[in-house]
Amino acid sequence: MNEKTKGMSQTRLVFTHLRAAIVGGRLLPDAKLNIAALAEELDVSAGAVREGLAMLEAESLVVSEPARGFRVSPISEPELENLVQARIEIEKLCLAEAIRHGGLEWEGRVVSAHHRLSRLAELQHELPQTLLSEDWTAAHAEFHHALVSGCPNGWLLRMHLMLYQQSERYRQLSAPLGGDRRDVRGEHQALVDAVLGKDVQAAQALITEHLQTTGRLLVEGLRARAPKAAKRRA
Q: What is the mean pLDDT of residues 37-56?
């Protein structure tokens, strides 16, 4: 255990470790999850691993099958398309509520998160196109969460977080994201301008276009990935 995890319960440790590995693309789709091996690797009980896996199953990051145990949830193009559609609808609702109810603290979070993301985006361009900076990835998540953080509806925010994590998993598995074919920084700036300007209609239209563009690029990434995945299974 490191300093970040030593105070966690065993179940929470398993959940946090495996969720990060799945969302970050380090545990690939359909990978088998051996309870005994994970218990030994993480120095926890087998019961804690089972409980952690059950929590991940509730977030649709792992699946279980009778007599076959747990494995990382598979990915597919239809599933991605459904995910993008659901995320657009939830994000639009969250943005509308954040704009209507968010105050100065919310505006400050949006400005701060956008500033950090913009600065890190400059460094991202120095990386190979097949890599995503961990710092940029974290800042990107912080930015999208900041945009909706003024929403007072906890149920919507929980759904937003779950859908974001699922989208991030596809992002990590499908990099690069065609950064030379879109102005991501411009898209983010337009979103900030709309939400700070209290323009619900503009913000909803912008987030729809932003997520649809990302979705199209992720589909391209899945199609490019498919032959490689099939080769690994052969």
A: 94
